[in-house]
Amino acid sequence: MNMTLTFYIMDRLSQAGFYEGMTRILVTGATGKTGTHVTRQLRAKGIEVLEANRSRGFDWSDESTWDTFLSDVDVAYIAHPDITVPEAEDDLRRFGKAAVARGVRRLVLLSARPEIKGEQAITTSEAEWTIVGPGWFNENFTLAGFAEAVRRGRLALPLGDVTEPFVAAADIAAVAVAALTEDGHRGRKYKLTGPRALSFAEAAAAITAAGRPVTYVPLSPGEFIEEFTADGGSRADAEHHITIAAMSMGGEFTAVSPDVEQVLGRPAIDFADWAKAQDWS
User: Fold this and answer.
1) Domain 136-166+193-254+269-274: which CATH class?
2) Domain range annotation of the chain
């Protein structure tokens, strides 16, 4: 049986509900910001999950480690550690090809906003695909990115009064889980945001109200580079942050998307509600 006919039959069976309750799903980046939620939500549905990360022997740079994780898997959630780096596109292309060759029929890719070139490696594969492209994570304030600054109580960034529709990792995961387990998402590119855009000053105020006092201090690009490098960061990293900030300042990420609500049938989690639910101790 040729590959095209195989995937046609699998697609028809899927639409008939044949795979309901029978799917084994691979989650790459299973301990990451979204992977943790994806894994938890899938298991809550009674679905078998195969977790892939470095501690379990999965290595994006070593294709020989992939076979174990792609065996007897129908569907895969793909969370590359850094989809913006040049080598990510090749990693994703090789992974998509390897997955299809081993019978994986559906791929859901965690991307970013704006669209990342590496998406093409998945959208041109022979599998069903869905792209979830979130904006700035709420969890940047707790797990990475701004977390240390928040702990110190001073969030100093070169972002002026730009607004961002911050999105909760739980919502990103819920949309991904829908795409992994339900029909109707094939070939879709979802832009995921929270329900409203906030300035960083407003985000800081929400975190303060939730129990962690923090002040937002807008910096010029030069001031940011000076502070960042004085704190031990490299100039290259500081300039990378400036590049991202410039995209935000240009309004690249400001728009609120209805995709979370349309997929989940409920509003996206509001940043203030998310902040109140965190342990800021």
Assistant:
1) alpha beta
2) 3-134, 136-166+193-254+269-274
The CA distance from 175 to 280, in Å, is: 27
Residue positions counted in the chain: 281
10 Å CB burial of residue 243 (0-12, 13-18, 19+) is exposed
- CA distance readout (Å), 271 to 140, 158, 171, 202, 276: 12, 21, 12, 10, 9
Residue in this structure with the two tokens 């110190």, named with its chain if needed: 152
DSSP single-letter state for residue 226: H
d(CA 262, CA 273): 20
Cα 51 to its chain centre, rounded Å, is 16
d(CA 108, CA 53): 17
136-195: per-residue pLDDT in tens? 999 999 998 899 999 999 999 999 999 999 999 999 999 999 999 999 999 999 999 999
Tokens 């989650």: give the residue.
Answer: 27
Per-position DSSP letters for 36-88, written without gaps between them: HHHHHHHHHTT-EEEEESGGGT--TT-GGGSHHHHTT-SEEEE--TTTTSHHH
Q: In which residue ranges of the chain is pLDDT below 50?
A: 1, 3-10, 12-19, 21-22
What is the Cα–Cα distance from 159 to 136, expressed in whole angstroms?
Answer: 13
Q: What is the pLDDT of residue 243?
A: 84
Q: What H or E segment, with its residue span, contains residue 163?
A: strand 163-164
d(CA 237, CA 160): 20
* Spatial distance between the Cα atoms of 255 and 236, rounded to a whole number of angstroms: 29
Its CATH class, for the domain covering 3-134, is alpha beta
125: phi then psi, degrees, rounded to nearest 5: -75, 170
- The pTM (predicted TM-score) of the whole model is 0.89
Angle at 168 between CA 35 and CA 247, to 5 degrees: 100
Structure token pair of residue 171: 């919502």
